[in-house]
Amino acid sequence: MNPVAAGQLRSATTPGSRPVSWAATGRFGGVSADPFESLNLSTTVGDLQDAVIENQVRAAHLVGVSRYNVLDAKHGSQVALVSAGGIAHECDGAVTTTPGLALMVLAADCVPIVLADQTNGVIAVAHCGWRGLVAGIVDATIDLMQANGADKIQAITGPAICVSCYPVQQDCVTQLEAGLPTGIVSSIIKMSNDQRFVDVRAGVHAQLEAHGIHPSAILECTMENPALFSYRRDGRTGRQAMVIAL
Ligand SMILES: [Zn+2]
Predict the structure, then answer these.
(1) Which pTM value belongs to this model?
(2) pLDDT tens digits for range 140-150
(3) 202 C-alpha to center of ligand 1: Å?
(4) Could you tell me which of 75, 95, 130, 155 has the fewest CB atoms within 10 Å of its CB?
(5) Where are the domains of the chain?
(6) Max Cα distance, the chain (Å)
(7) CATH of segment(s) 5-160+213-245
């Protein structure tokens, strides 16, 4: 199975330290049948459990491990500190300091994020849509990383719906305006033909930058790229992942 993207994060200050492996999956290379064809990683979208487990094991192998913990995201700001395989229930973020344990964040338009301070051995994943921007999941994830010893964090945002593909209702705009600093709101809401669009990735990046973190991005649009799952495009469909392990 070929990931959409994969790589290693290395420390700028201690080049000899062990790099952290990460990967972003697409929709191909798994065993699920239509409409989850084929690398669906979510057990909560109606796919066969055995197929999803096989797919999750394949995704974890991309970062060289067999144990993994999967986010069960709810568009909130709860973050779990995990040290064993399983599911982080109702959490949009997870942090670990345990080597050999992959963290997996699922998405199909929202922004998946992997974060790492490999010098101090702290990694995290987070899931952020427009509700997550307001809820503060990026801040909450960084807070828990720092509470566990992280101080030089790198981050990568994965495949997500782009601003041009993401028109929103007034309710979304109202909540963003109420919950975010004016500078961020004005930079992520675009107007076109009397329709408002939201750039969630830009919001995530602004919130990371506020912590001095300069993220890199996998600039693939889930809705435009048929090799990715997109909830907005397909409705009943699977979820791809970003995966990271110490
Ligand atoms: Zn797009």
Answers:
(1) 0.96
(2) 999 999 999 99
(3) 14
(4) 75
(5) 5-160+213-245
(6) 53
(7) 3.60.140.10
